[in-house]
């Protein structure tokens, strides 16, 4: 199940981004996942539940946006979203296709908890 490895990387990236935004809690992670990315969103969600406790994303939500496969014909330039997985151009019948989108897996954005957005008092501890 490579979704576990994916989620580990993803959480690392999200934590780094959260640090830069003030180090609060992450409320929502919005992902763009291509139809052809080979990622099972159920497995990804499961990995999220298993791996997020103890991170800034703990208790947060994971949201997916499916990106349809879009391919372009290199012979005639026609680009389209095939209704099913076929790599043949509907216009000229050519099979020389390029994938434009549909294989990506990106973090579109993350939302921080409200508290993280508001200005904070500088870290100060009188006991130190
Ligand atoms: Zn074509």
Question: Which tags fit this structure?
Answer:
single chain; 3-stranded mixed β-sheet; 128 residues; binds zinc ion; alpha+beta; 3 helices; 6 strands; 3-stranded antiparallel β-sheet; hypothetical protein PF0899 fold
In short:
The chain is an alpha+beta fold. Helix content is 26%, strand content 27%.
Walk me through the structure.
- By secondary structure, this protein is α+β, with helices and mostly antiparallel strands.
- It has a single domain, classed as hypothetical protein PF0899 fold (2-Layer Sandwich).
- The protein has helices at residues 3-20, 41-51, 114-117, and strands spanning 26-34, 61-67, 70-73, 79-80, 97-101, 105-112.
- Strands 2-1-6 form a 3-stranded mixed beta sheet.
- The protein binds zinc ion (ZN).
- Zinc ion (ZN) binds next to loops.
- Residues 73, 75-76, 78, 89, 91-92, 94 line the site of zinc ion.
Outline the fold blueprint.
Blueprint lengths: L2 H18 L5 E9 L6 H11 L9 E7 L2 E4 L5 E2 L16 E5 L3 E8 L1 H4 L11
Parallel strand pairs: 1-2
Antiparallel strand pairs: 1-6, 3-4, 3-5
Helix pairs in contact: 1-2
The structure holds zinc ion.
The site of zinc ion has 8 residues, from loops.
């Amino acid at each position: 199940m490579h979704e576990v490895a994916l989620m580990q990387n993803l959480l690392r990236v999200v934590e780094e981004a959260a640090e830069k935004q003030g180090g609060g809690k992450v409320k929502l992670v919005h992902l763009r996942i291509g139809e052809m990315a080979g990622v099972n969103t159920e497995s990804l969600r499961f990995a999220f539940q298993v791996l997020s406790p103890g991170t800034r994303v703990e208790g947060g939500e994971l949201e997916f946006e499916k990106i349809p496969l879009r391919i372009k014909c290199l012979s005639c330039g026609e680009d389209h979203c095939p209704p099913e997985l076929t790599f043949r151009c509907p216009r000229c019948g050519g099979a020389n296709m390029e994938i434009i989108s549909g294989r990506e897996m990106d973090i579109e954005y993350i939302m921080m908890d409200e508290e993280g957005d508001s200005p904070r008092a500088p870290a100060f501890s009188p006991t130190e």
